[in-house]
Amino acid sequence: MMRRRLSLAVLTALAAVACSSLARAADERLAGEARAYLTKYCYDCHGGAHDVGEDLNVADRETLIKKPDSPDKKPYIVPGKPAESLIWEYAGIGPKYRMPLARAPQPSPEERQVLERWINDGAEFPRTVARKPVEARATLTAIRDHLNRLAPADQRFQRYITLDHLHNNPTVSDDALRVHRAAVSKLINSLSWQPEIVLPRAIDDDNALVLAIDLRKLGWEPEDWKAIARLYPYGVTHPDDATFRELERDVTRRSGTRLPALRADWFVATVSRPPLYDQLLQLPASLRELEAKLNVNLERHFARDVLRRAGLVTSGVSRHNRLVERHPTPFGAYWRSYDFASSSGRGNLLLFPLGPRFHGNPFDDQAFEQAGGEVIFHLPNGLQGYMLADARDRRLDAPAPVAIVRDLDETGGTPEVINGISCLSCHKNGMKPFTDEIRNHPAVFGDAKDKLERLYPPSNEMDALLARDEKRFLDALDQAIGPFLRVGDDAKKGPRDLIEPIGEVARLYNKDLSAEAIAAELELPNIEAVRAAIGADKFRELGLGPLLDAKAVKRELWEGKGLSLFHRVSNELGQARSQEL
């Protein structure tokens, strides 16, 4: 009997431990979801260095739960009491002032419920798991060793993306590291005309902080990489360390470039926009040239009723009505939107549905005149390329005017639509669904009406084309990002339900840098170590003093132009600037 009671006691204890572990895991998951909510919807305006007239930093729990100076003001969060928490009053109950503001992306009811449950549960932040710091020397050694394993003829095509500075930043989670890897993979494959998805491969066995890319597999040339590296603001060398310097020379000699490795966050945020996006995707100067490359003849397709189109009287991207049309290509589809500066005159699609105007258009009296447009086309690997154009179908390198279209998520840092980054983020699952509003409400008659009905198909036909193109894209996307993101709770998610990584990385990169981020980028354990290494006077002289008070540094100031603040601090640490010539 004693042995049986002991066994039951042991089993009871084990069950208690198991239940406790499950409870901790559930608490940690809720904390992570709540922090993701605060980061996504609140941090841009309430992130420490962002001055909106309040001392609020949603990334700092102590700020959130501290008692306000005024007795008339509620605390931002009262753990266990959502109704007494100012954040929940604004985010969940929605009084006179609602957060986020109406012009910003809005959380779903389910996301707001996460915030409420989190406050009820005590409003704890996720526990930080300490990671062993990785030195730059170890990263460079991994690159040298990888090159050594290759034949000399292959070495000059190897390039590397690094995440060591993110790994060394304690505020960057393991999930965020996975998102960065996925973003790199999606971006490089979105800039490739090769038929296969190519995954960047980790060459450091322990941490997957160094990703190798073979330029040949992407169809890139060494000169393409040099064009990227010329803009890189974080290149340093170590002239005072003979061993380190020899390692740098060896890697340079084998790879054929001074900067064979670039930081993942900078790479994603920079290469995803012009001029690098346009150059690497080999976008020509006009839509006519691109269409010829894709075997699309717009006028021929119009005449033969090959294209399919839909008109939207209201659009979430355009301020005015919008036309979207599809052309078949050898790789899938070529989608073209026509955007307008006005919904009146020849910008009114109900009255002028049979454009664009071109020589020989038999329906010129019913032809619209566009102010610009966006093109989306399948690449050979199934992902999508993008191009913005002006009214004359010329490639638009500058952001599209907000009077015509706008980026509601401000992925590029402004409401302007920026080719590449705005499109990559917005079209998370490929083409966005839409419903035609022209076919059933024609304002033209006779032959023009017959032509309209041939070009504007019934909704079920257009829905089938959208579904086919979406599947092509999602299958390719799954290959590109699934291996990096389908982990833990996301293991069973399909590509549609995974986070869009490029926009996420770009938004994180463009945020102000905390003291932890600055220290990690300088390969030091904390900001006090930076101060000790360069001296208190120089620390203040360089304008870093506010970091000691939990303030932040603007990314624009940190990476700058010419001799940036990053390089000025690096020089004080005995590191010299390194550039690709």
Characteristic terms for this protein:
alpha+beta, 5-stranded antiparallel β-sheet, 4-stranded mixed β-sheet, 24 helices, 581 residues, disordered N terminus, 9% strand, 4 domains, 11 strands
What does this 3D model show about the protein?
With 581 residues, the protein is α+β, with helices and mostly antiparallel strands. The chain has four domains: 31-120, no CATH class; 131-271, no CATH class; 283-479, no CATH class; 513-581, no CATH class. 41% of the residues lie in helices and 9% in strands. It contains 24 helices and eleven strands. It has helices spanning 2-41, 61-65, 86-93, 109-120, 136-148, 152-155, 164-167, 174-189, 215-218, 222-229, 242-255, 264-271, 276-280, 287-293, 298-303, 421-426, 447-455, 459-485, 501-509, 515-521, 527-534, 536-541, 555-559, 565-572, and strands spanning 158-162, 201-202, 210-214, 236-237, 261-263, 308-312, 322-329, 332-338, 372-378, 384-390, 576-577. The strands form three sheets. A five-stranded antiparallel β-sheet has the order 6-7-8-9-10, covered by helices on one side. Strands 2-3-1-5 form a four-stranded mixed β-sheet. Strand 7 and strand 8 (332-338) form a beta hairpin. Helix 1 packs across helix 4. The protein starts with a helix and ends with a strand. Residues 1-6 and 48-53 have low confidence and may be disordered.
Summed up, the helix count is 24
User: Structural class, judged by helices and strands?
Assistant: alpha+beta
How many β-strand stretches? Answer: 11
Distance between the termini: 82 Å
Q: So what's the overall shape? A: globular
The share of residues in helices is 40-55%
**Residue share in β-strands:** 5-15%
Strand arrangement, major sheet: 6-7-8-9-10
* Parts with pLDDT < 50 across at least 5 consecutive residues: 1-6, 48-53
